[in-house]
Design goal:
Elements: H1 10-22, H2 28-37, H3 39-45, H4 56-65, H5 68-82, E1 90-97, E2 113-120, E3 125-133, H6 139-150, E4 156-158
Parallel strand pairs: 1-4
Antiparallel strand pairs: 1-2, 2-3
Helix pairs in contact: 1-2, 2-4
């Protein structure tokens, strides 16, 4: 809800964020610009009544209030239903550290945030994502959890050398 009393459905705000992000719009002002630039087309294609779209501050407030762990789980469940794996599918599994998340630069063991993804080569989409802090967990543990939660069978998995462990 906008502080001036305007209300927007959460699904609309999240859809605008996803669409804008897919169009290389990053930041709250860019989200607002995207919504304004595509206002009429969005109203028509989403079959919405005449209305304005959220401001940058509304996007900010909503995004700051979202539980991203819960949102990621909802999206993962949706992707699992919308993009089912097939026997013989190739899935790439990899982790990447996120730029700008390093804490304690001067220490030998730095703490930073990483994201692990399971990517379907056939469909061209990430089937699952999970973030972790390297001080609290490891990529190996997160990958094992992700694969267990996906419940996939009969697929071909591609890992980097980090996952060449006897325990796996």
């Amino acid at each position: 809800m906008h502080k001036r009393g305007k209300r927007y459905p959460l699904w609309l705000i999240l859809l605008l964020v996803i669409m804008a992000t897919m169009s290389d719009c990053y930041g709250y002002r860019a989200l607002e610009d995207f919504a304004r630039r595509h206002h009429q087309a969005l109203l028509e294609n989403l079959d919405l009544p005449p209305m304005g779209f959220p401001s940058d501050s509304t996007f900010r407030r909503v995004m700051m209030s979202i539980d991203f762990t819960q949102l990621a789980q909802v999206l993962t469940n949706w992707i699992r239903d919308a993009v089912p794996t097939q026997e013989g599918d190739w899935l790439g599994v990899d982790g990447k550290s996120i730029k700008g998340t390093v804490n304690n630069y001067a220490q030998a063991y730095q703490d930073f945030v990483s994201v692990v993804s399971v990517f379907s080569s056939r469909c061209g989409v990430a089937l699952a994502l999970e973030q972790f802090r390297n001080k609290e967990s490891s990529e190996i543990d997160v990958v094992q959890l992700l694969l267990a939660n996906l419940g996939i069978e009969g697929v071909i998995l591609s890992f980097d050398a980090l996952h060449c462990q006897k325990k796996l």
